[in-house]
């Protein structure tokens, strides 16, 4: 559909939302109070609402008294009932969609409920607002004069529910106006065979006027590299000269920025970040020259915050938006219109502004690796190490893991391990680790598929006492000081390797 004035019409319609966003930002506390009351009212007669006396909750203090801060394991029994098709459990009615994400210490995957309210009033609303904000900041944009490539995952369906990557569920439920501007076709978009998916997207897109891209950076880099190779072009700008926007979120973009710049070769390219997850859509980069993100307050999400220093002391006293301070690390707690009540999402944020409320993401509560979207947590790596030692009759003293980039579109994990008793076959040792991580972490397994994003992990055997010497050099011997197990930055592992020479 290449109609005259299409770009200006759609742009004008989307930009009307800016007025509403500004109204919300002018009365943020009133907006959040309304969200809070609406959530309690709607879930009054759910199983969770009855179990936690929602009928007696009149104030935020009542809410905190009735419901403790929760992790996935705490609400799993409710989610398990929902996955069996039961109604009115965490949220009114029957929940059909469940976003599958990386697991906990007890399970390979988490299944996050997605009500229709969350789909439309949170995730889809967030997507539209991203475009509205972008168009408001870039009035000369011609983004709707062409099509966009949207990379997503896959899903499975049974007689009761639909489970899969959040991106797949969203793709399968997009409104018609989005689908008319999207590549690839829905069958390709939802395929679970990434080799075939990337090949078909390449075929469907190389002769199109592509103006925007959406998807996880690691997979998008693979696609762009594949398209350049297929066409023989020098860069993406030679293929799609009107490409102007890449929308991304979910993982730290910093390690990828230079790679995108090298592949695209367009000085006018715009990169727009969002803070979204299976649990909800939370914030959008709203300024052209700042990576801060505007906290979106009218998406059916009620926000609470726990100071990181209090959390580390196992004090879980939360505060509302009105009490937050700048330059303070907070654990984000959410209550959503899918029935996640006082749910600890696992992220650490910092407020950079309170008028309006803007944030930056500081990291994860748990030490983890998520450079390539693998969401590897310490419990995963500890379990894999334990199994490898048991199977190879070896013992370790300490270890650390960091990401390493091998090419523009792929990387690996580098393990630095000090052994008390080395395995006879180090390759076998690492193979056991790799295989076990695939078994217990679905996101790691996906990124290791055909070694497209994650290559086999690498091993550096560290000499005796190197970790101890590092602690000594840093004046960190004794007490609670520990070797960082997982670190997305390579500073620590490089220091260890230098001491290992």
Could you characterize the architecture of this molecule?
With 501 residues, the chain is an alpha/beta fold. Among the domains are: 6-10 and 118-285, Rossmann fold (3-Layer(aba) Sandwich); 368-499, GMP Synthetase, Chain A, domain 3 (2-Layer Sandwich). 39% of the residues lie in helices and 23% in strands. The protein contains 20 helices and 20 strands. The protein has helices at residues 6-15, 17-26, 28-42, 47-51, 60-66, 72-83, 116-137, 166-171, 176-179, 186-189, 194-205, 217-231, 236-239, 254-264, 308-312, 378-392, 426-440, 442-447, 466-473, 491-499, and strands at residues 97-102, 109-114, 147-150, 155-157, 162-164, 182-183, 210-214, 245-249, 270-277, 280-285, 293-295, 301-307, 329-336, 343-354, 357-364, 368-369, 376-377, 395-405, 411-421, 458-462. The strands form 4 sheets. It has an 11-stranded mixed beta sheet. Strands 2-1-5-4 form a 4-stranded mixed beta sheet. A hairpin with a 4-residue loop joins strand 4 and strand 5. The chain is globular, with a radius of gyration of 24 Å. The N and C termini lie far apart (62 Å).
């Amino acid at each position: 559909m290449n109609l005259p004035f299409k770009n200006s019409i759609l742009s004008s319609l989307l930009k009307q939302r800016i007025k509403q966003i500004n109204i919300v930002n002018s009365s943020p506390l009133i907006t959040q109070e309304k969200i809070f009351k609406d959530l309690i009212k709607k879930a009054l007669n759910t199983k969770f609402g009855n179990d936690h006396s929602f009928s007696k909750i009149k104030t935020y203090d009542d809410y905190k008294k009735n419901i403790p801060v929760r992790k996935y394991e705490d609400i799993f029994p409710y989610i398990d009932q929902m996955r069996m098709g039961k109604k009115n459990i965490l949220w009114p009615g029957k929940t059909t969609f469940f976003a599958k994400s990386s697991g906990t210490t007890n399970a390979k995957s988490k299944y996050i409920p997605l009500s229709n309210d969350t789909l439309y009033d949170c995730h889809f609303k967030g997507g539209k607002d991203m475009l509205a904000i972008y168009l408001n900041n870039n009035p000369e944009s011609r983004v709707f004069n062409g099509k966009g490539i949207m990379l997503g995952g896959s899903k499975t369906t049974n007689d009761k529910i639909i489970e899969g990557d959040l991106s797949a569920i969203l793709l399968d439920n997009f409104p018609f106006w989005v689908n008319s501007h999207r590549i690839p076709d829905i069958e390709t978009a939802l395929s679970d065979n990434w080799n075939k998916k990337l090949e078909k997207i390449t075929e469907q897109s190389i002769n199109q006027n592509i103006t925007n891209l959406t998807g996880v950076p690691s997979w998008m880099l693979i696609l762009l590299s594949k398209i350049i190779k297929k066409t023989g072009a020098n860069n993406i700008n030679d293929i799609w000269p009107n490409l102007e926007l890449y929308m991304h979120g979910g993982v730290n973009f910093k390690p990828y920025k230079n790679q995108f710049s090298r592949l695209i070769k367009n000085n006018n390219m715009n990169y727009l970040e969002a803070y979204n997850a299976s649990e909800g859509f939370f914030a959008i980069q709203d300024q052209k020259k700042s990576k801060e993100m505007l906290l979106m307050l009218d998406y059916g999400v009620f926000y609470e915050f726990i100071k990181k220093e209090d959390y580390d002391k196992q004090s879980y006293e939360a505060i509302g938006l009105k009490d937050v301070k700048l330059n303070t690390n907070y654990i984000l707690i959410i209550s959503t219109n899918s029935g996640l009540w006082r749910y600890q999402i696992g992220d650490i944020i910092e407020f950079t502004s309170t008028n309006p409320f803007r944030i930056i993401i500081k990291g994860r509560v748990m030490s983890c690796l998520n450079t390539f979207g693998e969401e590897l947590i310490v419990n995963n790596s500890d379990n894999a190490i334990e199994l490898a030692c048991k199977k190879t009759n070896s013992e370790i003293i300490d270890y650390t893991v960091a990401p390493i980039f091998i090419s523009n579109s792929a990387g690996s994990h580098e393990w630095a391990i000090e052994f008390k008793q080395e395995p006879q076959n180090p390759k076998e040792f690492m193979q056991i680790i790799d295989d076990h991580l695939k078994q217990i972490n679905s996101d790691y397994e996906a990124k290791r598929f055909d070694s497209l994003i994650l290559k086999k992990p690498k091993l550096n055997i560290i000499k005796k006492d190197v970790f101890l010497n590092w602690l000594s050099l840093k004046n960190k011997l004794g007490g609670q000081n520990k070797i960082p197990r997982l670190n997305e930055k390579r500073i620590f592992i490089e220091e260890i390797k230098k001491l290992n020479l």
